[in-house]
What we know:
The protein is of the alpha+beta class. It has one domain: paralog of FGE (formylglycine-generating enzyme), CATH 3.90.1580. It contains 4 helices and 6 strands. A 4-stranded mixed β-sheet has the order 4-3-2-5.
Amino acid sequence: MDAKAFCTWLTDKDRAAGVIGKQDYYRLPMDHEWSCAAGIGVLEDASLPPHAKGDKVGNLYPWGTAWPPPAKAGNFAGEEMKAVLMANKYGYMKKQFIPAYDDGFVETAPVGSFPPNQWGLFDLGSNIIEWCEDWYDKPNKDRVLRGASWEISDRTELLLSHRTHHGQDKKSFNGTGFRCVLVIQGA
């Protein structure tokens, strides 16, 4: 998986430069860590596998509980997508968008375009859907994906507790990315 390879590359680079300690390393976040970073970790049972927790914390979105999202809530498929969807630019997408919401970006937005969450983290739950370290379910074929992307307009898929999954070798999945977690050994 390219995201894990990037974490390995960044670990080697930062260790060599003395930016991180010799035992410190980067990796993808675990599913429960992602939930904690999004502010819902205390509402979920950390002992359950990801597939058992999907969509269980209802009516909590990256912006709160209101529907539709308030202005500048994040990068989702809003009114800005209407013209390109009708022109069939994204033939694989449902021709749906969030009415009365326009984030100003048809595709991905630069990081920092929208306010951070309560922990100062940007784009948790919007812009791109993110790979996690965990397997979604046995027999360990698919990895967990968390958050939502610029392509998403479905109310359920925008929930902070929503999870999806794909094979880790899938390379052409639009709107997908990752963030790194720094593990500091001995801290």
